[in-house]
Amino acid sequence: MTHNIYIYIAIMGGITYAIRVLPLTLIRRQIKNRFLKSFLYYVPYVTLAVMTFPAIMEATQSPVAGVAALLAGMLAAWLGAGLFPVSVLCCAVVFILELFLV
Amino acid sequence: MNRHKTSLQQGFRDGIPIGLGYFAVSFSLGVAARNAGLNAFQGFLASLLNNASAGEYAGFTVIAADAPYLEMVLMTLIANARYLLMSCALSQKFSPKTSILHRMLVGYDVTDEIFGITIARPGMLDPYYAYGAILIAAPCWAGGTALGVIAGNLLPVRIVSALSVALFGMFLAVIIPPAKKDRVVAVLILLSFGASYLSGILPGISGLSGGTRTILLTVVLSAMAAILFPVREEKEQHDA
Fold it and tell me: Quick count: other Cβ atoms within 10 Å of Cβ B98?
């Protein structure tokens, strides 16, 4: 570890705060540029999807359990389950499957 | 003054289920923080200063890789870009008379959930409503992270393995419902899964760090989607 964790945290915190507070304090009108608006609209979905797969297979002891949690979570969210229930379901799927797989 | 007190109480009440959810998810984030080499205080501090699940998770992968500070800058910008959109939308909810101090305080905790409940309030936003929600949600978030770092060491591997997917479950709960309404988003998500998988095994790009790959894929795929399928006004209003 050649980098300081507190500097990492300060960078994270400072930038995250700036992202949130600058629009609130500076921008009083809606963004007009269509490309920029569309880009910002799609960004969260791509980032979260990219970070979820294949990472979810690597987070668990058994990759199969990770994939099962992914599919179960997608199905539950598709059917309208909220943030907390989906999270709990994913955990439960991994726990139960790994009783047999690991 | 009385009106502010009512708003504060309502915000606190609406913030309780959010806080409970945060506690569970941030516990899993704490496990990721521990794996990246953070101690409980550092995990607590990161969560207290960020209030961002995906952003923090992304940041922890940067810390784990001991990557350059510049990568942390880019990673945080990309992973939290959606808050820029939310804050833009939220800025329209403030009365023009709302002071800059209130705006700066509300901006501390614009998360998917708190944005969701504040934007759903009828009329102009009383900042005290947001403060009520933040008062319960932020400590749960930071406390859960710290506990995740500590208890991640004590819990059996089996439990940690199960809890480590809670965060991904939350990501799915954020991205899947809009995919139901918007087929472009649905296809984009599947495309992102595929591209992410391929970028981890293809020669050349797989040599880059995970954080850099996330940034690259996000910029390329989102720009492609924005060019091919620019959003219409009302869609942006709905999901912002």
Answer: 17
